[in-house]
Amino acid sequence: MDFSVFEKIMYNNESKLIVIGVDGLSRSGKTTYVNMVEKFLVDNHIDHVCLHLDDFIETRSKRYNTGFEEWEEYYFLQWNAEKLRKDMFEQLRNSTFLKLQFYDGEKDVQIPKDVNIPSTGCILIEGVFLQRKEWKDYFDYVIYLNCDRETRFRRESELTQSRLEKFKKRYWKAEDYYLMNVNPEESADYIINT
């Protein structure tokens, strides 16, 4: 996976706090890429914090069986986009720490935790749909990991692949909405094909 893009960003922004988004659809390689980035940041003694969008999803009662179509639940209700904008994105450059609601999937609750924000270095945020209108203006750079649907689906476990209807009704329709209405490849600063 091409890592030169991230190195270029960091070397051009020394002594500043920059916010970098790693966007991409499910199974496009975001976690793998972010793990590489974090190793680079640690090895180079660069202060950073990494935020994973999936840590901030809503409880099941707010995102399932709501009366909306499944894809709408996934795109519009999986996260409280406005609350995240207010509590996280708007505060990234103004705070030394954030108090955020982290999702505990086992208990299906959100638990408040403090996140320390460095004064210089990098805030790395990874997740799907990062360039949606509520959040896109808070990034200095966005890296979009581009991967076709068939390849991404093959990366799922056999059990997950057996739930094809859920992909058709929930995930893929939401992805299509994002691709059509946000056009993340065009609005990203860098594209990495994975």
Features:
194 residues, alpha/beta, Rossmann fold, five-stranded parallel sheet, two-stranded antiparallel sheet, 9 helices, 7 strands
Biggest sheet strand order reads 2-5-1-6-7
Radius of gyration: 17 Å
Briefly note the structural class of the backbone: alpha/beta
Average pLDDT for all residues = 91
* Helicity range: 25-40%
The tally of domains stands at 1
Low-confidence stretches: none
DSSP, total strands: 7
Topology as a string of helices (H) and strands (E): HEHEHHHEEEEHHHHE
CATH architecture: 3-Layer(aba) Sandwich
Count of helical stretches? 9
Please provide a written account of the structure.
The chain is 38% helix and 24% strand. A five-stranded parallel β-sheet has the order 2-5-1-6-7. The protein is built from nine helices and seven strands. The protein has helices at 4-11, 30-43, 60-63, 70-77, 81-87, 149-154, 158-161, 164-181, 184-187, and strands at residues 17-24, 48-52, 97-104, 109-116, 121-127, 141-146, 190-193. Strand 3 and strand 4 form a beta hairpin. By secondary structure, the chain is α/β, with parallel strands linked by helices. Helix 4 (70-77) crosses helix 8. The protein has a single domain (4-193), classed as P-loop containing nucleotide triphosphate hydrolases (Rossmann fold). Pfam families: PRK (PF00485).
Write the layout of secondary structure elements.
Blueprint: H1 4-11, E1 17-24, H2 30-43, E2 48-52, H3 60-63, H4 70-77, H5 81-87, E3 97-104, E4 109-116, E5 121-127, E6 141-146, H6 149-154, H7 158-161, H8 164-181, H9 184-187, E7 190-193
Parallel strand pairs: 1-5, 1-6, 2-5, 6-7
Antiparallel strand pairs: 3-4
Helix pairs in contact: 4-8
